[in-house]
Amino acid sequence: MQGEAGEAIRVNEWLETATSNRFHLVVFVLLFLLITMDGYDLYVYGAAIPLLMRSFGMSAAQAGVIGSAASAGTLVGALLLGPLADRIGRRRAIIATTVLCCASMAGAGLSDGVAGFAFWRFMFGLGNGGMVPSIMALASEYFPRRRRATAVASISAGVSLGGMLGALLGLWLFPRYGWRPVFFLAAAPIMLVPLCARWLPEATGFLVRRGRLSELREYMSKARPAEPLPAGATLEVDRGTGKVPLGDVFRHGRLGSTLVLWVVYGVNLYVMYGFTIWLPKLVMDQGYSLARGLSFLLTLSIGSIIGSFAAGYIADRTGSRPTLVGCYIVSCVSVGLVGFTSDFWLLMLLVTLAGAGFNGAQNTVNAYIAPYYPPSMRSTGMGMCYGLGRLGAVFGPAMIGVLMSMHFSYKVTVMSIALPAIIPVIGVLTVQEKFGFSFNLKAEREAASGAK
User: Residue 232 in contact with residue 410, Cβ under 8 Å?
Assistant: First the structure.
């Protein structure tokens, strides 16, 4: 799509129809590494629960509440910082929240009591709630449409890589040095901040509103280096108003689907966080050692990575909706069956499938939701879904902790995690794709191509 001088070029279409190159690879690697913090935090807390309960004298119910503290912070951060990112720029928001996340994990490692530890967990969630939606929105805007689901799902697989690092470091450090060094190491991504400032692009709508058109042209040229961008071409982009467009998220037929997407997102996070955070403790209560409990967490991470890449690949070829339905069903069945066996190798298989199911779904739904909204409100739409959906991540660990404190059976506890996973299957089938921005853009392009 090479523009002539004086003609109008639709920026978002220019970016969506690009071919992947070095520019996309650099952006991918940076965003992937940043996302690893989210997974590291999730898995390392689950791995550390047995040690933290002894260190702080916590009950299972208290451990569950603290497990929900980061998710509560994420909810607040996503609702407040998601819309703010559309105003101040996504790159700036990503950098600021990365600094907050790193400082908070270091603060957790220094904590000497339950209250202090819970505070820093909440602060990590606050930063994470602003960072992740901006990352997903930026990736959805700059990666080519035909590779978007794979790219976003692969970036999201950083969660699983972070989880694997957390489990491996736990196996190595816990017996020797306790739980604190594992949290200190989570501050390492602070080293990515100068690289992000240098190499990450900025949201197109933000650049237009600020009059930074030369910078926008630079990014467009990097996205399609073989096609010169005429100096006189007029750039058309969804600008937005520059204000926090909360109400716009529900307009133009998006109300019903937006509410459904919140439920879908939240229930899957309920399953993911409830299962992941409590997995080591659950299997230890069945007679397994801490090392075996962490090995299950490592297996879960491996399954999550495989599921993330596989789901993204399948979604780009068959569509996101059928891929999501399949992932949610795998999640429901495999998590549920965990409660009906104590065989080590069968548990390993089921845990692997569970990780592939709910993480594959979560990473695919990120690529499904972001382009549903116009670029000007993409961080807002994604942030609201990510934030309100975190109610599931808040409720899951806390509820499982309460059930364990009340001495409910192992089967009942596991089934209370598994059965809600059928809700997203129903929900994703009711989303009205015809009202989505990217779906409309694709329809317009196909109509224009058919008219020629």
Answer: no
